[in-house]
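Long-chain fatty acid transport protein
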Amino acid sequence: MVKKIIVVFTTLFITIGSFAQKNNTSAYSFFGIGDINSSSTVEQLSMGGIGVSLDDSFHLNLSNPAANSSLNFTTYALALENKNIWADDGLDKQRAATTYLSYLALGIPLGEKGGLTFGLLPNSSVGYSLTSNVYSSGDELEEITLYNGEGGTNKVFLGFGLEVFKGFSIGLQGNYLFGKIDNSVINQIKDVTLATKYQTIANVNSFSLNTGFQYKKELKNKLNLHLGGNFNLENEIKSEGNEYLYSVSIGTYETPKDTILNAQSKGVMKYPIKSSLGVGIGKENKWYAGLDYSFQKALELDGDIFSNYSKIKYDNSNKISLGGYFTPKYNSITSYWERVTYRGGVKFEKTGLLVDGSGNGSNFTAIDDFGISFGIGLPVSNQLSNLNIGLEFGKRGEISNGLVKENYINFRLSLSLNDKWFRKLEIF
């Protein structure tokens, strides 16, 4: 058992380097600290992202720490995600894709009524390359501006769940956020020898807490009613870094010339409390249908690093997810396909991001997200371990007011391995 623990910890910290890869290709990752990734497993995302009220003995639930109390097996989870985006601004269409490690986590049962999870996942991601051209009345290129960004934030988490009385569990999770974000803008004007580059390099860190509860009530005909709630407490994400403004000569390589600005900068993103509630009904290890709803008041930006975002505002955000799963017979001996789990779901999300694509400072448009997801869980051993495959089709944004509509397809793959680490010594 000690060897297993050492292997898991070693893998976890080696994998931290893997999360530094570029894992976003969306124009909307330009804003703030980038796209905020869902703290859900492949299994949950295949059901529209539900999970606040769902307890599961064989899979991790990263949406609510109270679910840790349901773990019966030591569960090791590893996942990959492939993102494909087709962007359309009404004039041009582009496609981009990226593949990355989406989470690494371990869940350990503590007796019959408790459990904990810890792991690492990307919290937000930045990855864009945008070009803006200005033409004269004669359609001659007068000015070109190139926007580039990469980086993001990662999250290390440790959560604990405990069943305080029959059917009712509570949980608490601590999260440490860290990362680095590099944004730059290069402007080149016709007949001007040197271009101008503005760059911000920011190191981001924060500590946050979320707490939750789950309640399960047995009804007639072996049906179970599930209720749950998760609350991300109010926190601040702090950013410290440098601003640079200098002239550059653009050729095969970018050569800096005169430095105009080199200053330290700070920024703060204030996140109000985020409340998520869920309800579901189902039969143990057979089927489940659930509905989740989350709400958060508008984010607040402060400091030099975020003060240049004049084209964006934040509003209240909310999300509705509906989904479920069906397993014909999870312990079937005669048929492999009866042990396969089938999943599906849908989500509707108002992200809270408002963008002024026209640049006049008064025409802000909400960026909404809609997605349909499907998935399948394939048993890979006699210990209830499985390979999970998920597929999501969706749309974000729209073609209006100078904005971009993104159609996306996300392919997800995870491995959930179950084992008994702590066994009572038996003498024969």
